[in-house]
Amino acid sequence: MSIGGYIFYFILLLIIPLWAQFKLKRTYGKYSKIRSTSGQTGAQVARIILDANGLQNVKVIESRGMLSDHYNPVTKTVALSSHNYNDASIAGTAVAAHEVGHAIQDAEDYSFLRLRHRLVPIVNISSNMSWVFIMIGFFSAWSGALLIGIVLLAAGVVFQLITLPVEFNASSRAMDQLLSHNIIRNEEERHAKKVLSAAAMTYVAATAVAVLELGRLILIYTSMNRS
User: Fold this and answer.
1) Is 84:95 a contact under the CB 8 Å cutoff?
2) What are the phi and psi torsion angles at 117 (to 5°)?
3) Each residue of 48-69: pLDDT tens digit?
4) pLDDT in tens, 28-49
5) CB-count burial class (<10 Å; 0-12, 13-18, 19+) for 98
6) Would you indicate the residue range of the signal peptide (predicted)?
7) What is 121-138 written as a DSSP string?
8) Burial of 92 (0-12, 13-18, 19+ CB in 10 A)
C-alpha cells in the first residue's frame, strides 16, 4: 500500500467512529429535549417494562456520566444516566427500554448475550496482549509473533460481531415493549427508532473499524510470508 493509501486508510478509521458518535450525540440531544406524551421518566419506563415481564428482582438505578446507561447481568441492575433516569423525554424512554431489553434477554437466556458474557474475560486478556505480539512482529519482522497477535485480535473482532445481534435484538424488544404497553404513541415511535438506530450505529462503526484493521494485519502477514 502506498503512503497515500495508508493516509486514506487511517483517516477512514478515524472518520467512521467519529461520524457515528456525532450522529448519536446529535440525535440524542434533539430527542432528549422533547418530552414524551406519557410524562414518565426513564426510571419509570424501565420499571413498568420490567414488572410487566416478571422482572421485579431487577433494580433500576441512576448512574453518573452522559450516556452511561447499561444493564449489569451480574448485579441484575438497569443503570440509567441522570438525564434519562430523571426526565421524561423521548430519548430517555427509548434508552431505558433498550437497557431493559438486555434484562429480558438475560432472563430468557438469549444465546448471543450468553456467548458475549462468556467471551468477556477472554477478550479482556487477548485485547491487551494482541498488540504486544503485533508490535514484536512488526519490529522484528517475525511473522510468527504477528500471527499470534492477529489470532488474539480476532477474538476481539468476534466479540464485536456477536455484540451486533445483541444490541439490535435489545432495540427490537424495546420497541415492542414501548408499543405494547402504550408508553409511546403516534410520531413518538418514529422518533424512538431514530434514537435507537443512532445508538446502534456506534456498534456498527466499532465493528467495521475492527474488521478493517484485522484485514489489514492479515494482508501484512501474508506479505511478510511471501517475502
Assistant:
1) yes
2) -60, -40
3) 999 999 999 999 999 988 889 9
4) 999 999 999 999 999 999 999 9
5) buried
6) none
7) HHHHHHHHHHHHHHHHHH
8) buried
